[in-house]
Amino acid sequence: MKDWRTIRPEGQDGPYIPLGPFQLRFPGIHYKFEPYDYIQGLLMCAVCLSIIPILQENLGMPFEVALAIVVLNGFLYCWHTALGDPVVPGWITPAIPLIVAYVGTFDPGVPRMHALISFQITFALWCLLLGITGLGRRVIDIIPPGIKCGIIMGAGVAAIFMVFKTPGGRLMTMPITISICALFTVYLMYNYGFRKLAQNNAALRLVANLGLLPAILLAIIVAPIVGEATFNIEWGISRPDFATLWTDWVPWGKLGWPSPMEFIRSIPLVLATYIVVFGDVIQVQAILADGRKVRPDDPGTYNVNRTHLICGIRNGIMGFFGPDISMCGPLWAAMHVVIVERWKKGRASMDSLLGGAASFRLGTLTGYFLLPVVTVTRAILPAALCLTLLIQGFVSVYVGAREAKNLKDLGIGGMVAGALLARGSAWGFAVGIIACVLVYGTDLLPGRKIEEPAIWKGQEK
Description:
2 strands; disordered C terminus; mainly alpha; globular; two-stranded antiparallel sheet
């Protein structure tokens, strides 16, 4: 058995193969494989599979073609740790409702696919540009807080709207199961009393740290009891249809390439999506900084520019080989926190954060090929998707509100969110810019400080 303390001495990153800005690593050679996190990944692949109904309903994809896109995306998830990022990557979840609304403005078929392809490739080029130049933070700083507040809150409200809207709301696909599991999830993740109990109880703490997994397991139990799902478990290996994907659903196949104007038209949505992505990057840095206080032996080097490059490469590959509404983001926040919490328990629990994150994503990738896992989760995919959207909506609204520096920003954010939900990203930015100019005038210029009203500071009643 390898002595990983010799391979990765205390206080140092693990070994790697230099590859330009990247650090190439392989499991079992450059980092320790973590079986616990791998098994957890096998179970949590159900959440990743829940994007399939979105692809089917909005793009008209057959199930096996949508499964092929999930598998391709799952393979690219592994690139973050393989290239040096100690993080659990995931969807750009808050952007999903915005992307669905955007592609929905185009006719089904080729026009809709062209809209998605042009957006994803443009977003990939944007991430690559910022990764090469290192201008990510500067771009975000230019955008007024009120607009950032509105974009993030608008994405959250749009996610919740997708669940509850009539007609066509996803709640009614499995109303009893979704309602029970959503209440259960919110209680586990955010109820103060439960979190307090979990601090002193190892079993409850484990449940609290598993994110959506307990609710998905509950859905598997509740759905057949209330008659909202039946399970037809099959054994063997799943069969994602890459052949059809790479003939009928890619720009170098029968679809053809979008026009230059379609790439230009996607730019407002690209900027709105990037605001969300940058928030994820900041969140990763904060989580890692907190964890390093108790794990100084594992520096877990995280490079923002490298993250931009990896996200750009992943989205570029998906745009060419498997256009995907879920997109390729830098963080799956819930599961990254779960992995970090176990990492914080010490080296005996997890040798390195990169090893835990990599093992988890190898687990989700394996799960896509296990037919029993796919067939069981297929029956409750609507519930898994709704739970993801509801929790993301909850989080996005309060994260967006925190972007506001004062009550005026919050008001502007509300206007941006409303315009975004009703008319799309371009309208959201336009309304936000006009509102900021009218409210702040020359105070928006660089170097000018906007004073916060006393009421925002809690100094007035």
